[in-house]
Amino acid sequence: MTDLLTLIALPMAAGGLPFPEFSPALVSIDFGFVGLGTFHLRWYALAYIAGIMLAWQYATALINRPAMFGGTSQATKDDLDDTMFWIILGIILGGRFGYVLFYMVPYQQDVIAANPLSVLKIWDGGMSFHGGLIGVTLAIAMIARRRKLSLLPLGDIAGVVAPIGIMFGRLANFINAELYGRKTDSALGVIFPEGYVPGSTPSAYDWVAKQWVYTGHEFARHPSQLYEAVLEGLLPVVVASLLIWKFGALKKPGLIAGLFLLMYGTGRSVVENFRLPDSFASNLPFGLTMGMILSAPMWIGGAWLVWNALKPKPLHSPD
Fold first, then answer.
1. Contact at 8 Å (CB) between 192 and 177?
2. What is the pTM of this model?
3. Quick check: helix, strand or coil at residue 38?
4. CB 228 within 8 A of CB 259
């Protein structure tokens, strides 16, 4: 009864909406009888799986319609299947090593010095979208060269399906009560649990007690994960799909890939004004955040791709 009263009173006192308190795991299976502990099928893992599977299906639908590319794509279903394997590898390796390069090396050298193998502990959290993007780009470039495919059409496919995975990932961030926003008096503010459970990965969820942990001093915060789900995921996939299916945008190689980079970079930079920055990287100059800085190259690359796709092509005179 006390916990129920606290759940009701805390949001009223802080002036925000209560966090829905989803369990971070869909199901938990105890294998303690064989000494393996408890297996948790987490929403975050399911988000990755769902995002990849839906992206795969969407990409397959595009590959099966070569006329939509205007003859610029020679990719087949086998090419796509091979590409997806390397893209998944690029997401995982690029995301982790990007986090190490962008966040651990500059700001957490003491953690690396204490345990150099911590850079490999992907299960403890720490993935960088921008690192994952680099990994995916390298994977696509490798497949294009190995299979002698046009690079830009493959990039366009990635540009329309990637936001699906991003959207699911941000929704999982919300369920996990992580990467939440700055304090706010807005009616959209949510009271996220901010208690820390000793002896576990930095988290406010007590897996033993199976409950979220509150300090009693929580504030209403922007649900920035949901903002990102819309601006980085839902909006880009809707806009790109409209341009593809209604206006034949895939016939201009590089256009969708460029628009994705521009839309993600813009959406991420906007949400960074509402998202709580990492405590170890919160004092950057000019009010910038690491997310804004890492998004700047996306604007440049995206703008070049769009310009290159839309510029008038030279007319070839007959022989």
1. yes
2. 0.88
3. strand
4. no
